Amino acid sequence: MKKTVLVAAALLTCFTLTSNAQSSSANNNNNSNDPDNLAKEYFSQIMGVAASSTVNTKMYQFIYDWIGTPYRLGGSTKNGIDCSKFASALYEQVFNTTIGYNSRNIYSNVDKVSKSNLQPGDFVFFKIRSKSITHVGVYIGDNKFAHASSSRGVMISNLDDSYWKRYYFNGGRALTAGNLEETDDTLN
Length: 188
Description:
The protein is α+β, with helices and mostly antiparallel strands.
């Protein structure tokens, strides 16, 4: 009798583990076949950010398409682009928003955001050996940002790198209709 109960318990345990493994495998197959999840995982690995940060696959695709484009002051094509044109082109293509034509102008058109409150898609501004803003990039998550570097072209950098830490000025979020209404209310 004891043997029968033990064998039945062992079989029940095996059956339960097998069915759990099969349902877990089915869930993983559904996620891995979903194009959005595949894109998120891919950009997460390529850009070094958490998959949970890659919610806007259109933004990450845009950045990926431009990675390696050489820097050219005043440039706005894949033959060469500068930092503000890169940030502007990203906003026009991904968010359908015109934001500005140079880093100082872009800064005047954003809500200021502390470094600790940055979200993917926010701007990051730098004062490099200057008292005024000289560089802009777009935050992509996990302290990383995409930008057109004068030495290496369009690339992804880390805000924690000593160079970027030294020159970091502020973050900014593009003004939206909701932000503008809040601003109008505080003026009245």
